[in-house]
Design goal:
Radius of gyration of chain A: 22 Å
Radius of gyration of chain B: 17 Å
Distance between the termini of chain A: 35 Å
Structural class of chain B: alpha/beta
Strand content of chain B: 15-25%
Largest interface: A-B, 20 and 26 residues
Order of helices and strands of chain B: HHHEHEHEHEHEHHHEEE
Number of helices of chain B: 10
Strand content of chain A: 25-35%
Largest sheet of chain B: 8 strands, mixed
Helix content of chain B: 40-55%
Structural class of chain A: alpha+beta
Helix content of chain A: 25-40%
Bound molecules: flavin-adenine dinucleotide
CATH architecture of chain A: 3-Layer(bba) Sandwich
Strand order of the largest sheet of chain B: 3-2-1-4-5-8-6-7
CATH topology of chain A: FAD/NAD(P)-binding domain
Largest sheet of chain A: 9 strands, mixed
Oligomer: heterodimer
CATH class of chain A: Alpha Beta
Number of helices of chain A: 11
CATH superfamily of chain A: FAD/NAD(P)-binding domain
């Protein structure tokens, strides 16, 4: 069957797959994006009630690739992150004014912008899909099942359930944590479960949140309060991510509404006045995953197909955005040198660029979780000291700040606000 | 495809050439070094062309409108990137089997490149002229480098650009050429080659000047173990790459 030819095939039209397509399109790289789901249904608030913290570096990229204009209205800035321990008044205090190298106040609080933004996943999806439909560079195929994948000397190709064969010099796997492509090409993974679940819901509170995010390390696990924009009825809202043991998670999911609300309210406290649960609740089993390689033949992995990390630091999506920015830069350079986009030289550069960051974040989130999900007295004390210490040690604090912002050394251009 | 040679060959032989092309194009195969040099060489060639012809480096097809001759094209390792950048590429190689491999590969990648089994001298007699002549790792294999440079000059339109790369004649290059099996395998189909025929950058500049080229520039092409890649730099002791202009007379 004849199909228009495209530069790359992207399997997976989720948050990362579509962002990849848009980033590549800015350099004129065209793509087929294939998803087995009816992706329009994923925009329904009942499908995915999550909101994601998007680091300011990721926002720079979303601006450059023409998505931010569709998102700005629904983005809630985070100006401050307060990290507290259950039985300690100490907290690490991150705010945008302090994240400059020069230190507090020298450049004024607004100069560097917020630490990041909270964005509802469904709104991200709506923007990504809307723009993809308008783009000449992107051909969407969804919902469509892929029945086969093969690689030749010069191309990777996929066969769709309707018999269509699509081929391109490069195939990008963005099909999530259970990546089918990754299995097909025989890339193995290391993975481990945390025996934990994340319970996600949305609450309203009487007082405004003041653009502040809170991460509380409670005895039964981390509890995150993430600011959201007021809803249509003018209610002040925050997203809740509660990490608990699997057993507690099951129990909490089974609770009737009133006691569930009481569980959330007791953890939230009353610092913003009375709190009410105003959305469905979702439960996600937590685990970590690392693909043993990020590329093989003419296939490269991005986003959750390459790595899954503990959501403790809200970095999974941002890590995926960094993959996108690095891959787009490497492929754009290849394109401008006339190289085959599936060239090994390009793939190896991508792998070398991304692996350290991915392993670092896997390690950091894993370590944080072990540190904070444990209720041993000794550890608790260590945590308390740890908190104070982070505040006192500008270097360490800066590291954490930069992680929150998603900025570090040798960042891809798109994350530094530079065009490709 | 082009040329009657392609049609006079039977299916069995085409399979054979496909297999050969596959090994040429295998990044871990005999042309490994040339592959690794690819980005640095193409980066240099593109920068030179873009600045000389005043083109848009970030365009999707920056070389559109340029007629380029890849002289000694082998299996098309440079012809293909040039074609992807929009150039109208003619690849020539004296070895018929290289041309067959190049054609087989271009067919698979879907690139439109004219590959002809011929020599520079034959094209000069046919009065063919190009905006640019690219000839990488060739001059050290020819019978007479000065004659070769003269042919390249004749194959350029006035104002056209000649791009070349070769090996210096130093102890380091001797070691590389002898030890570097990849390089030797590439040499074999072209006949006998001797290290003493390698040309130093100074000799190269002299040859080009005698051949009426102007604005000769030469840079080193070095392996960077830390980055595991090749880069343009000042050190010309082993490989070097350069450009020169045929001025309007
Ligand atoms: C509880 C929780 C909270 C989180 N909070 C944050 C946060 O605050 N900030 C943050 O940065 N990150 C967060 N993350 C992580 C973030 O959600 C993920 O990293 C991100 O969604 C990954 O996107 P993706 O596109 O790679 O994969 P996915 O979102 O899984 O998308 C994969 C897509 O591929 C499609 N697909 C799958 N298989 C096939 C197939 N065989 N053929 C075709 N298509 C296929 C699917 O239909 C889907 O559309 C959180 C994660 C969890 C679990």
């Amino acid at each position: 069957m004849s199909e228009i030819s495209r530069d790359v095939i992207i399997v997976g039209g989720g948050l990362i797959g579509l962002t990849t397509a848009h980033a590549l399109a800015t350099s004129g790289i065209t793509s087929h994006v294939i998803d087995s789901q009816d992706i329009t249904a994923t925009v329904d608030p009942l499908y995915d009630g999550r909101a994601s913290a998007i680091a300011s570096a990721s926002v720079k990229m979303l601006k450059l690739i023409g998505l931010w204009e569709r998102l700005a209205q629904s983005a809630q800035p985070i100006w401050e992150i307060r990290v507290t321990d259950s039985d300690s008044p100490q907290f690490i205090h991150f705010d945008a004014a302090h994240s400059n190298e020069s230190g507090p106040n020298e450049s004024g609080p607004n100069e560097s912008g917020p630490l990041g933004y909270m964005m509802e996943n469904r709104q991200l999806r709506a923007a990504l899909q809307g723009k993809a439909r308008e783009s000449d560079a992107i051909t969407l195929h969804a919902p469509v099942h892929i029945t086969g994948l093969c690689q030749s000397e010069t191309h990777a190709s996929v066969t769709l359930a309707n018999g269509t064969v699509l081929k391109a010099p490069l195939l990008i796997a963005a099909d999530g944590r259970k990546s089918w492509v990754r299995d097909q090409v025989g890339i193995r993974t290391s993975h481990w479960g945390y025996g934990q679940a994340a319970i996600i819901t949305t609450v309203s509170h009487r007082e405004p949140h003041g653009d502040i995010a809170h991460e509380r390390f409670l005895p039964d696990g981390p509890f995150a309060i993430l600011p959201m924009l007021d809803d249509a009825e003018g209610r002040h809202r925050s997203a809740i991510v509660l990490t608990v043991s699997e057993a507690t998670g099951h129990a909490m999911m089974a609770l009737p509404d009133r006691p569930f609300q009481a569980e959330i309210a007791s953890r939230f406290g009353d610092f913003l006045g009375p709190v009410a649960v105003i959305s469905k609740r979702w439960s996600w089993p937590l685990g970590a995953l690392a693909a043993e390689k990020l590329t093989t033949g003419r296939v490269v992995l991005v986003g959750d197909s390459a790595h899954g990390i503990h959501p403790i630091a809200g970095q999974g999506l941002n890590l995926g955005f960094r993959d996108v920015a690095a891959l787009a830069e490497v492929l754009t350079e290849g394109l401008r040198l006339g190289l085959d986009l599936g060239d090994q030289v390009l793939q190896k550069r991508y792998e070398r660029w991304r692996r350290p960051d991915m392993m670092l974040l896997l390690g950091v989130t894993d370590g944080l979780n072990r540190l904070f999900s444990n209720n041993l007295a000794g550890l608790a004390r260590l945590r308390q000291h740890g908190m104070g210490a982070v505040n006192r040690l500008p270097k360490l604090k800066k590291f954490f700040m930069n992680q929150a912002r998603g900025e570090g050394e040798r960042q891809p251009k798109l994350l530094r606000g530079l065009n490709l | 495809m082009n040329a009657s040679a392609a049609t006079s060959i039977n299916e069995h032989e085409i399979d054979k050439f496909n297999a050969l092309a596959a090994s040429w194009w295998n990044p871990d195969g005999p042309s490994k070094v040339l592959f690794a040099m690819g980005p640095a060489r193409m980066g240099y060639i593109k920068r030179q062309l873009v600045s000389h012809f005043d083109l848009d480096a970030n365009a999707r097809y920056p070389l559109k409108g340029l007629k380029i001759l890849d002289l000694g094209c082998g299996a098309g390792l440079i012809s293909e990137p040039l074609a992807r950048l929009g150039a109208d590429v003619t690849g020539i190689d004296a070895a018929q089997e290289n041309i067959m491999m190049a054609r087989a590969h271009a067919k698979q990648t879907g690139l439109d490149i004219e590959y002809i089994p011929t020599t520079a001298e034959a094209l000069v007699i046919d009065k063919k002229q190009f905006n640019a002549v690219v000839s990488l790792e060739v001059i050290e294999h020819v019978a007479d480098a000065q004659d070769f440079a003269k042919s390249c000059h004749a194959l350029l339109k006035p104002g056209g650009m000649f791009l070349f790369s070769t090996l210096n004649r130093t102890l380091e290059s001797y070691a590389v050429a002898i030890v570097g099996a990849e390089y030797m395998t590439r040499l074999v189909p072209r006949g006998t080659h001797e290290w003493k025929k390698f040309i130093t950058p100074a000799e190269m500049a002299e040859i080009l000047t005698v051949a009426q080229f102007r604005s000769v520039r030469i840079e080193g092409l070095n392996y960077q173990p830390v980055h595991k890649s090749w880069a343009i730099g000042a050190n010309k002791s082993i490989n070097y790459i350069g450009a020169a202009i045929r001025i309007e007379v």
